[in-house]
Sequence to fold (680 residues):
Amino acid sequence: MFNPVAKMPLFRLAARNARRNTRRSLLTAIAILVAVMSVTFTFGYVGGAINDMMDIYARTQSGHVRITHKEYPDRERFLPLHLNVPHVSELLPIIRTHPAVEGVVARIRTAVLIDFQNENSPGLLIGADFERELGYFDILDMVVEGRAPQPGSAEILIGAILAEQLEVAVGDTLILLGQTAYRSMGGIRAEVTGMARSGLDPVDRNVLFMPLDQVQLMTDLHDGTTEILVFAEDPEQAGLLANSLKAELDGLVIGGLEIQTWKDQGALVQMMESSGSIFGVVIFILMLMAGLIIINTMLMTVLERTQEFGMLSAMGMRRGNIVALILNEGLVIGIVGALLGGIIGSGLSLWLEQHGFNISAAMEGMDFPMKNIIYSDWKLIHPIIGFFVGIATAVGATLIPARRIVRLKPAEALRGK
Amino acid sequence: MRTFSINHRLLGIALLACGLTAASGTICPAGAQPDPEEILRRIDSNIMISSARMTARMSVQYSNGETRTMEFISWSQGTDRSFLEFTSPPRDAGSRFLRIDSNRMWIFLPRVGKSVRIQGHMLRQGLMGSDFSFGDATENPSMVDDYSAIMEREEILNDRSTFVLYLEAKRDDLAYPSRRIWVDSQHWLPLKEERYAKSGKLLKTMILGDVRRVGDRWYPFRLELNNALQADTSTTLQIIEMELDIPIPAEVFTLRNLEGGDE
Fold:
């Protein structure tokens, strides 16, 4: 049987057809372009933000593994000093020599009342070994004015926003009141030697840093701490490291220790871990919108060209081939839109990887471990995923109007019905 | 500054009006409804002090069975002025608290070496980690001046006949906008007290015991306090020694004394 399209390159024919109504094809291509661009950009930008948050969370709060008193996590919101880890000077060397450990830091976090010029303000005091914190909670890198406190001296590094609010300057003396490990009242009088700006709003607004030995003195936590943060050589192996440390440290501390990986410590990491499903929803919504536009434009194409399809059918062209022709038209437009969308989305993502996006106004007052400037994290896989999802959407959405051709009777089609 | 002493004449008139003597331990004849305001007045006549010096032991019991015990000496005058100094354990010895009125309170910690004025929500924080807030430990309010009372019912509490009164603050600046008290009908002392927030939420429950005769009044020598917001602790305050209505030099209630200037 004669088949006029048997050897006809459908793709070339579809490409030519796509140019017949440039405006409509352009609309369809733009829908795909915007969707693919958004997918590519969202992957890079949100991925960058999440990676940033997880990194900050690990460095400032959770470590990859955190060691606390057994009961501390349940009562953490009160920052209870009596639930502490004692004998730190004995525990730290044991942990440091573990082959899977990259670094270990001991910190004390405690709520304090800041007294300055007869005014009381709340604050969060962090006692830390500043040298050992390099690469983790980079306290020394945060100093924007003055200098960092010296171990052995009652000196304070204060968050820049907090200092501004209290009208505290370098050289001023603050009195800090708080609880002790014996649940009594402790305090210290210390000089402000510097201002810190971390780029993290909750830190710059609330936190005061002091050398660990001084906070131990103030809180009666001699050789004790509220938490030990362990950083793994491979963060993905944090679970194995936690189990190994549990076995190694078991029985060394009366009352017991709680050893948790960062993923076990709170909803934040788990939420960020489940970001894959959020991406899925975003992609679905974007593609649904693009798909609806494509269905609409292709349906118009099919309606307009009913007689043409009737003619092709009357000339012996199989319905399957007519459907393939329409699908190829969707494919051609999809490729153009997806390609351009991937390129533009990648360009945006790469630009933000260099320059970042300042969200400080939105972050003001938010207790979230997120920097004020978010940098994108572009990966080649992002436009590739966007490209294929875009093409699949274009072709998939074209199927719906193409189904109409299957039901078409040549005689009716020729009459334009 | 206000000072308080028992107005015996007023008390006598009130008792005569009920047709009974103070020794009988009741305000009104059986079946008659006692006047809630008169009950408050009689509580005040037991509890309100013009001045006092006391030595007390404060024990904080934790839910894990642990107990922390501290001792202090306090001087108080009128409704607002008080000075309190911890004497043990050694790590807390020398910690002092001065209150001059409801808005002016200072802490002195030896390791800080300077007095710190505390205000606002800090006054509601636990004194040395106990269930007593700084306000609880240092204020000496007048029931009849600060609260209006409604008689709710009569109740037997620990084999004692009590009147249950619901109190509402007459002023906005009081730490507890409402209270419910179980008043011993013989000694005219609250044996139990519930203190509520503005929302009606129960904040603290206090049990008073070891009631002793001191001069012409009855006084509770033991107070047990449970803070609903501090679920893992309860605090017992046991008065070891108390002197009432004694002259206290004005210098006691000064910042100079707080910072150890007279030592």
User: Anything to note?
Assistant: The CA atoms of residues 112 and 178 of chain A lie 5 Å apart. The mean pLDDT of chain A is 86. The radius of gyration of chain A is 31 Å.
